[in-house]
Amino acid sequence: MENLVTRRHPSHVNPPRESSVTAADLVMGLTVIIPAYNEAEFVGDTIRSLLAQTVPPDQIILVDDGSTDGTGNVGRRAGITVIRPPHNTGSKAGAQTFALPWVRTKLVMAIDADTTLEPTAVERLTRSFEDPGVGAACGFVLPRRIKTLWERGRFVEYLFAFTFYKQVQEYYRRPMISSGCFSMYRTDLMRRHGGWPGRTLAEDMDLTWTFHQTGVGVRFEPEAVCYPIEPYNFRFMRRQLRRWSHGFIQNITLHWRGVLTVPFLRSAVAVALWDAIVASLVFLIVLPLLIVALRSPWLLLAYFIDAPAILVPLVIGAIPRREFGRTLASLPSFFVLRLVNGFYFLEAVWSEWFLRRSSLTYEKGH
Amino acid sequence: MNPGLPGAGIGGLFYILSALWMPICELWRRRQGNAPGRWPLVARQFGIAVGIIVAMSGVFWALDTVLMLQQVAAHAAGQMHAMWILRASALAVTSGVLATVLGTVHVVRLCLRLSTVRHAAR
């Protein structure tokens, strides 16, 4: 077995000489990149969780992307490498790509500045790379805080998707997205691709679909669990939903020809697109019209008719985590989130495909 | 639904069918000698798919029995019509739409390939 995380290097800043570094020059080990813009409140937890890993990374690089709240100082106090671009790069992808020349290890991991990990997450995710055909791997995502309506809705959504959909995708070797909040890659592969692409608002989906099209393996490791801070109010949730919806549409526009050549992924993407459009139209337009036209309040049941189907994977996912009660209590929030999500998805379709207004302004929304 | 993408109908059906297909796929891979032994994953996802089918069957049984037969049918024919719409859209229409979407993907793929071959031939 190739031990990819063995050597530990001191945290220091090496001058980037990307052009002179070849794949052969990379040493065994893992470098973690944390892109951060005004994340002083959360980034300390992220760094501590990385340092507490059963197999700690060899180097941690915090990209202080023009913060004004002392984010960089948190990293310096923790003794990790802190780099600062001359000006704000404008996106998470930009900040991560800025740090790539500093990476000297064969594996590189990107983690959001508000995300913590299970202590074994890095070790488990690294195992995916024992297969030389694998270029990217991602883990199970669950919100760290589950208090507000939005956090609860997202908790249900994640638990359902990562317990059922994502594991089916993994079986067919086609995870639809290697989540940007916590993913690991081969460094030479990332360099060949010029880093994280900034041409869409969903750089993680862009990268994943590019890998699938070029025959690079992407894996989902359900035992590697991460806990990001999810949007806790409507303002943040709105930004995230807009970014994700526009990102999905932009990636379909960009990759549709290529995705058609990838078995399973093409079906999964087509079904997801159809389902997202139709479900949004039905929930926001068709059902309200039917309820009024037929004067039948029973039709309101249609908003929740799939609740038992959603509950099955939720129960399977919640019981081992001993979160059954919290899951049940959070289920109503999910239906609210789905409705709101439907609105922003339709807005993205309208804006990107009908008005031809592509949104590329990266709004931070956790 | 995938995180951040709303959904309710054919997405669920697609993943249920994909999960139900996994044991057959795994047996085939094993026969070919390239199965990495993922039976626990297969069994778990197959179980979830069966569980969802049972749960939704229960929902329709409950709707039929409790709402339609006892209440709706007794009071309003219009509501009975509404229940029919619910059932039909959830089963027949969803299956038909899924087949159409997947079929369309393959037709578009074949058209693109044909177009590429023709272009190369010129």
In short:
Chain A has 366 residues and is of the alpha/beta class. Chain A has helices at 43-51, 71-78, 92-99, 121-127, 149-171, 187-192, 203-213, 234-259, 265-294, 307-318, 324-354; strands at residues 27-36, 59-64, 81-83, 105-111, 115-117, 134-141, 182-186, 217-228. By secondary structure, chain B is mainly alpha-helical.
Strand order of the largest sheet of chain A: 3-2-1-4-7-6-8-5
Task: Provide the number of structural domains of chain B.
Answer: 1
Could you tell me the mean pLDDT of chain B? 82
Low-confidence segments of chain B = none
Instruction: Report, as a whole number of angstroms, the end-to-end distance of chain A.
Output: 37 Å
Provide the succession of SSEs of chain B.
HHH
Q: Order of helices and strands of chain A, N to C?
A: EHEHEHEEHEHEHHEHHHH
Sheet with the most strands, sense and barrel status of chain B: none
Query: What average pLDDT do the residues of chain A reach?
Result: 91
Rg over CA atoms of chain A:
21 Å
Tally of domains of chain A:
2
Largest sheet data of chain A? 8 strands, mixed
Gross geometry of chain B: flat
Please give the share of residues in helix of chain B.
Answer: over 70%
What would the CATH topology of the largest domain in chain A be? Spore Coat Polysaccharide Biosynthesis Protein SpsA, Chain A
Quote the distance from N terminus to C terminus of chain B: 44 Å
Counting helices, strands and paired strands, the structural category of chain A is alpha/beta
Overall shape of chain A: it is globular
Radius of gyration of chain B: 21 Å
| Protein structure class of chain B | mainly alpha
Greatest interface: A-B, 60 and 51 residues
